[in-house]
Every structure is written in C-alpha cells, then in structure tokens.
Design goal:
mainly alpha, elongated, 13 helices
Length: about 210
C-alpha cells in the first residue's frame, strides 16, 4: 500500500545514515539514487556521520566521506574540531593527534580552553579506567601542554597516587618513576606507596621484581 512521501523520505534518510555509519558507501549511494533524496538531506546526513566517524577515530573513512560528498573546508574544519574534542575526552590520544595533523587544525584551537577541558577529561579517563593506559595519560599531558593546575588538582593527584601504587605492586618501576616525576607526588606518599607495593609484590611471589 502506498505510504506518504514524507514517511518514505524519512525512512530513506535513516537508511542512508545507517549504511554510511556502517561504512557502506555503495549502499548509501543506491538509496540516494533510488529515492531521489534532496541534496540538502544527503549533506545533512553525511555530515552527521562524518562527525561520528571522527569522534570515534575512523579517520580514513571520514576522508572518504569528505571526498565522496565534496564537503568544503567550512564543513570539514568544524567537524574535525568536534572529532578532536570527542576523541580526546575519551582518552583516544593517537586519534586526536592524527586529526590535528590530518586536518591541519590551528594551534590556537588546540590550546583553547575547550580542548584543554577535553584533555583533562581524557587524562582522568586514562588514569581511572582499565581501558586507558599510562602512556596515553602521560602523552595527553605532554602533547597538549596540560596546565599544571589540572595536573596538580586534587582529583588528578588522587588518581595518580592509585596508579603509582598499582605500578609498584606490579613491579612496573619505570612507569612508577614516570608517574612520580610527571605528577610531582610528595615524598611522604612515595615512601608509603613503595612499602605498600613491596608488600603486594611479596604477597604475590614477586621476589625478583
């Protein structure tokens, strides 16, 4: 039975977004052609997928979307900025750095308060989440010149202390030294952490560490 044209067009738009999100450009193009989607609708849908791709580190496919849908720089640059902020806030430091390099984002934006806030969120994520890594946390601080008031904040310091204890307990001395140096942890706490780490190592049979 015939459906109203607005229902068909909405379904086609959702199908377009679905296939683009699944990196199937050919299916997306078939939908555009079959349902004669207006250029404005196509651009809007492709832009939404572009931002989502960049936000999750799918940079190569984002470049394909930009090329296929002929996005101008006035669309690409804001999308890249959103992608950078979203990647960085989730601790995806490698993706964030690649976005900066690939899209030549200006240094004044990279050092803006908005990006600094995203870097802080990414740092906290890496320090507090098992999916994050110490290397990522340290790289966020160095690559984005994270302000010392953030590094020395109570929240970050407490997380760094927990990471230090874990490093010492696991025998990861090199990482422990980097944590102590980067976060300028107090000597009194370092001594306490070293004792706790030694006890944990010995209780788990880590004599050689």
């Amino acid at each position: 039975f015939p459906l109203p044209q607005e229902v068909v067009q909405q379904a086609a738009k959702e199908g377009l977004i679905y296939w683009l999100s699944n990196q199937s450009i050919n299916y997306a193009l078939r939908i555009i052609d079959k349902f004669s989607l207006p250029q404005e609708v196509v651009q809007q849908a492709a832009k939404k997928v572009l931002i989502n791709c960049l936000s999750n580190g799918f940079i190569d496919f984002a470049l394909r979307i930009i090329s296929k849908f002929s996005f101008p720089q006035e669309v690409v640059q804001p999308a890249a900025k959103k992608g950078l902020i979203n990647c960085l806030s989730k601790g995806y430091i490698d993706y964030a750095l690649r976005i900066i390099d690939t899209f030549s984002l200006p240094q004044e934006f990279v050092q803006s308060p908005e990006v600094q806030q995203a870097a802080k969120e990414g740092l906290i994520y890496c320090l507090s989440n098992s999916n994050g890594t110490i290397d990522d946390a340290l790289n966020i601080i160095s690559k984005f010149s994270l302000h010392q008031e953030v590094v020395q904040s109570l929240e970050v310091q407490q997380l760094a202390k927990k990471v230090l204890i874990n490093c010492l307990s696991n025998g990861s001395i090199d990482y422990a030294l980097r944590i102590i140096d980067t976060f300028n942890l107090p000597e009194e706490f370092i001594q306490q952490a070293a004792k706790k780490g030694l006890i944990n190592c010995l209780s788990e049979g880590g004599i050689d560490d």
